[in-house]
Write a structure and sequence with these properties.
Low-confidence stretches: none
Mean pLDDT: 92
Structural class: alpha/beta
Distance between the termini: 51 Å
Shape: globular
Strand order of the largest sheet: 5-2-1-11-23
Radius of gyration: 23 Å
Number of helices: 12
Oligomer: single chain
Length: 441
């Protein structure tokens, strides 16, 4: 049987439907795919996409994951690329194949068998997972927010504990609703503030047995000298003051050594009660990438890439986002693992793929830091923006909140276009009073 015209096209396979991978697949589909110049396939283990920087809102129910999710199958149909459900487990560079692990059903039965996909160009964009640094007690007793499923699971357990307290006859036990967050990066501090807001909403909705000020202790624990270690203290200090004004306990220079089902223990001997503990300290690329078929990787499994984002070993393989270690111009540090990095790299790779098909040289990636914004739920926002005559400037309050929400709108615009995002924004504004402010199921 002869190959179809589609099979004869240059096949670009993108593994990972996070911010960078999905933006790249969408824009390549709208250009090369639509013009029948290449075949684009996106591979992901899930059917749906949620923007990862908002997972802390999913975890508290402030963002309804079912209302805000994007379906890969429908999106692929609308934007001229293919979608394949699966989780990459291995690579055959000689045959230019990726192998996907078998997909199992709820009872463990194999629903989709192990299979391979041939590529001409491979882009690995599988993001990152939380780095537990080999601590078994962390793996056993902590919640993680690596993906939408884990965020949904935390939200269900959070609701369950709150409703359990509301229904029980006996008084609330000390520590019964206490929560600890290990790691005071952006995820940790934003989650702490969202939990405080979610508790307030639960009381408003009738869970009046809970006094968030007396019955719930939320603690953030950081091993470094100050919270938000990648940001200047001009940003981290006001964030710390806001957290403390909300009654959130913050410990710095405390390294966690052990976690159990009722407390967190630090190297100094501090014992912090916690019925629910979230680990948000550090990241690493998924384990399956470690030296996968001879690709060069670093100690946290990131693929070492050149400034073209091609791997240092194989020019047919690219990597972007958190799973890539890319050198940074005029710096001894690699490009930081941030959403804006993945967005910029995806935008460059759209041009790179078009040039690659024409046999032209590829552009080199130059990271541009546009700043960092921290949202403390409805209690405030602050951050540093890069640009302008002074090089950087600091924002807080309403302006910072609008800039923060604008980042999500920029991500949506890259996927849906300006007009659709405007319509979605208008629709959300008109219907927000009809929906509860917190997901309660």
């Amino acid at each position: 049987m002869s190959a179809s015209p589609k099979d004869q096209l240059h096949h670009i396979v993108i593994v990972g439907g996070g911010a960078g991978g999905l933006e790249l697949a969408t824009q390549l589909g709208n250009t090369l795919g639509k013009a029948k110049k290449a075949r684009i396939t996106l591979v992901d283990a899930s059917f749906t996409h949620i923007w990862k920087p908002l997972l802390h809102e999913v975890a508290t129910g402030v963002l309804n994951s079912f209302a805000d999710e994007l379906n890969y199958v429908a999106h692929a149909h609308q934007h001229h690329f293919d979608f394949s459900l699966g989780c990459m487990e291995s690579l055959d560079r000689g045959q230019q194949l990726i192998w996907l692990a078998p997909k199992r059903g709820e009872n463990g039965e194999i629903v989709i068998p192990r299979r391979s996909i041939h590529y001409d160009t491979l882009v690995i964009a599988v993001g990152s997972v939380v780095n537990d640094f080999g601590n078994e007690s962390v793996r056993e007793h902590c919640y993680f927010l690596n993906n939408r499923d884990e965020a949904d699971h935390f939200q269900q357990m959070f609701l369950q504990k709150c409703f359990q307290v509301q229904a029980q006859q006996e008084p609330i036990k000390p520590g019964q609703l206490d929560m600890a967050i290990i790691g005071a990066g952006a995820t940790g501090v934003e989650l702490a503030a969202e939990l405080k807001y979610a508790l307030k909403l639960l009381v408003d909705y009738g869970l009046d047995r809970i006094d968030p000020e007396k019955d719930v202790n939320i603690t953030v624990i950081e091993a470094g000298k100050h919270i938000l270690p990648v940001l200047p203290q001009k940003v981290s200090d006001p964030v710390l003051r806001t957290l403390e004004s909300l009654g959130i306990n913050v410990y710095t220079e405390e390294m966690v050594t052990e976690v159990n089902d009722h407390e967190v223990i630090t190297k100094s001997g501090l014992r912090i009660p916690s019925a629910m503990t979230v680990w948000a300290a550090g990241i690493r690329a998924p384990d399956f990438l470690a030296n996968i078929d001879g690709l060069e990787t670093n100690q946290i499994n990131q693929i070492m890439v050149k400034t073209t984002l091609q791997s240092t070993v194989d020019d047919n393989i690219f990597a972007l986002g958190d799973c890539a270690c890319c050198p940074q111009q005029d710096s001894d540090r690699p490009v930081p693992p941030r959403a804006q990095s993945a967005h910029q790299q995806a935008s460059m790779l759209v041009k790179s793929m078009a040039r690659r098909l024409r046999g032209k040289s590829l552009p080199k990636f130059v990271y541009k830091d546009h700043g960092t914004l921290i949202s403390l739920s409805r209690f405030g926002a602050m951050g540093r923006l890069m640009g302008g005559w002074s090089g950087c400037y600091y924002v807080d309050g309403f302006m910072a909140r609008m800039f923060y929400r604008g980042l999500y709108k920029l991500h949506q615009r890259s996927l849906h276009g300006t007009w659709r995002v405007m319509l979605q924004t208008a629709a959300n504004f008109l219907t927000q009073r009809l929906r509860p402010r917190l997901k309660l199921h």
